[in-house]
């Protein structure tokens, strides 16, 4: 293996740090749902997604060893493009389909209001 | 890089880089190409999963008067299978570290342990799916279940594929040892395996935890 590739393998310490962080970031969201310590579901969902996102970053850094410098920057570059596409696809479809559902299924009062128009 | 070119003349099998001795780009350039190519494949796989996540996010609430996530999912089993994947990630990391020390036996041992955790994860998933189908929560029951089986099943198929690849890699390693090609294969599967664990974070956050909570 070249020195270049070796730099990307990480060390025992970095793998263990990644593992411990992943365990913590896994146990807390499961506890939030199974232990039901919170009354507010919105806060619980926010905790799940923030910690899930944080754990993804931990995996990218400590396990996948993505760095700005690896592969002359092409690795980080292609990941950036993928994340951009994912954000567009996910947020776009959720947004559009939410609006579609809101507008395609008029509530009863809305129907009545339209019916009573002069 | 010179040590690998010394090893190269002993080739019992077709190497994927027959031209790497000629040309002034050298081997370094080629090695970059394989790992980067595999990385770009992973990114396209990531887009597949992104679309499946979007489908689940849109359709996941359409129960069609059928069962909802809170009726179906057993979170303690999901926690166990999450830890199976997490353990397999760290043991794969240990295998890579052993490989860096040129310790073939250690590499093989940790890869076998990784495969064991992978098979345990698959076993738990098959149990869960057969339990759901036994309850009548089949993919045909509702849009929620169609998108659920599609997303989680695609991830499971990837883990199955990775496990088969792992078995092939074990055979290659035990036959040829830690050659240049085999090291590259170990690193490619390493990326693939950690990537599947990363996708699973999205699955348990969106499908299982949020599903049971809401």
UniProtKB/TrEMBL annotation, chain A:
Which InterPro entries does this UniProt record tie to the protein?
Answer: Cyt_c_oxidase_su4_prok, Cyt_o_ubiqinol_oxidase_su4, Cytochrome_c_oxidase_bac_sub4
Ion transport recorded as keyword: no
Entry keyword set: Cell membrane, Electron transport, Membrane, Oxidoreductase, Transmembrane, Transmembrane helix, Transport
Asked whether the keyword Cell membrane is assigned, the reply is: yes
GO MF annotations, alphabetized: cytochrome bo3 ubiquinol oxidase activity; proton transmembrane transporter activity
What biological-process terms (Gene Ontology) are attached? aerobic electron transport chain; electron transport coupled proton transport
- Recorded topology in the membrane: Multi-pass membrane protein
Cellular component per GO? cytochrome o ubiquinol oxidase complex; plasma membrane
In terms of Pfam families, this protein maps to: COX4_pro (PF03626)
Q: Where does the sequence pass through the membrane?
A: 12-32, 44-64, 76-98
Name where it's found. Answer: Cell membrane
Family label: Belongs to the cytochrome c oxidase bacterial subunit 4 family.
Function of the molecule? Cytochrome bo(3) ubiquinol terminal oxidase is the component of the aerobic respiratory chain of E.coli that predominates when cells are grown at high aeration. Has proton pump activity across the membrane in addition to electron transfer, pumping 2 protons/electron.
Q: How does this polypeptide assemble, per the annotation?
A: Heterooctamer of two A chains, two B chains, two C chains and two D chains.
Q: Report what the protein is called.
A: Cytochrome bo(3) ubiquinol oxidase subunit 4
Record organism: Tritonibacter litoralis
Q: Which gene encodes it?
A: cyoD
Automatic annotation (TrEMBL), chain B:
List all membrane-crossing ranges: 38-57, 77-95, 107-124, 144-171, 191-211
Question: Could you give one GO CC term from the UniProt record?
Answer: plasma membrane
Q: Does Glycosyltransferase appear among the keywords?
A: no
Please list which residues make up the signal peptide.
none
Question: Where does the protein end up?
Answer: Cell membrane
Q: How does it sit in the membrane?
A: Multi-pass membrane protein
Q: Which GO terms describe its molecular function?
A: cytochrome bo3 ubiquinol oxidase activity; cytochrome-c oxidase activity
Domain Heme-copper oxidase subunit III family profile intervals: 1-212
Database matches in SUPFAM superfamilies? Cytochrome c oxidase subunit III-like (SSF81452)
Instruction: Report the InterPro entries cross-referenced here.
Output: Cyt_c/ubiquinol_Oxase_su3, Cyt_c_oxidase-like_su3, Cyt_c_oxidase_su3-like_sf, Cyt_c_oxidase_su3_a-hlx, Cyt_c_ubiqinol_oxidase_su3, Ubiquinol_oxase_su3_dom
Main location group: membrane
* The keyword RNA-binding is annotated on this UniProt entry: no
| Keywords in alphabetical order | Cell membrane, Electron transport, Membrane, Oxidoreductase, Transmembrane, Transmembrane helix, Transport
> Which biological process, per GO, is one annotated for this protein?
aerobic electron transport chain
What's this chain's function?
A: Cytochrome bo(3) ubiquinol terminal oxidase is the component of the aerobic respiratory chain of E.coli that predominates when cells are grown at high aeration. Has proton pump activity across the membrane in addition to electron transfer, pumping 2 protons/electron.
Assembly and interactions?
A: Heterooctamer of two A chains, two B chains, two C chains and two D chains.
Q: Give the family, as the similarity comment puts it.
A: Belongs to the cytochrome c oxidase subunit 3 family.
Q: What is this protein called?
A: Cytochrome bo(3) ubiquinol oxidase subunit 3
High-level lineage = Bacteria, Pseudomonadati, Pseudomonadota, Alphaproteobacteria, Rhodobacterales
């Amino acid at each position: 293996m070249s020195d270049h590739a070796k730099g990307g393998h990480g060390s025992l310490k970095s793998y263990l740090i990644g593992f411990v962080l992943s365990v913590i970031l896994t146990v807390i969201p499961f506890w939030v749902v199974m232990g039901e310590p919170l009354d507010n579901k919105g806060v619980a969902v926010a905790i799940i997604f923030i910690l899930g996102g944080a754990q993804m970053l931990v995996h990218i850094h400590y396990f996948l060893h993505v760095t700005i410098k690896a592969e002359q920057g092409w690795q980080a570059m292609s990941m950036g493009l993928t994340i951009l596409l994912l954000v567009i696809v996910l947020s776009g479809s959720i947004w559009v389909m939410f609006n579609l559902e809101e507008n395609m299924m008029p509530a009863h009062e809305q129907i009545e209001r339209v019916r009573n128009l002069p | 890089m010179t040590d690998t070119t010394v090893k190269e003349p002993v080739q019992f099998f077709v190497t994927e880089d027959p031209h790497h001795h000629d040309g002034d780009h050298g081997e370094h350039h080629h090695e970059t190409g394989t790992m980067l190519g595999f990385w770009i494949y992973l990114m396209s796989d990531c887009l597949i999963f992104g679309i499946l996540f979007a489908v689940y996010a849109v359709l996941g609430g359409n129960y069609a008067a059928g069962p909802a996530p809170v009726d179906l999912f057993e979170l303690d089993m999901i926690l166990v299978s999450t830890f199976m994947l997490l353990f397999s990630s760290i043991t794969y990391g240990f295998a890579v570290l052993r490989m860096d020390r040129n310790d073939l036996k250690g590499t093989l041992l940790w890869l076998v342990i990784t495969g064991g955790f992978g098979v345990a994860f698959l076993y738990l998933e098959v149990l869960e799916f057969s339990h759901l189908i036994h309850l009548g929560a089949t993919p045909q029951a509702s849009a929620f279940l169609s998108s659920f089986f599609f997303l989680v099943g695609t991830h499971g198929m990837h883990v199955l594929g990775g496990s088969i690849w792992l078995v092939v890699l074990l055979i290659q390693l035990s036959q040829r040892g830690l050659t240049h090609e085999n090291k590259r294969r170990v690193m490619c599967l390493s990326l693939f395996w950690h990537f599947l664990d990363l996708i699973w974070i999205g699955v348990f956050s969106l499908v299982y935890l949020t599903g049971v909570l809401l």
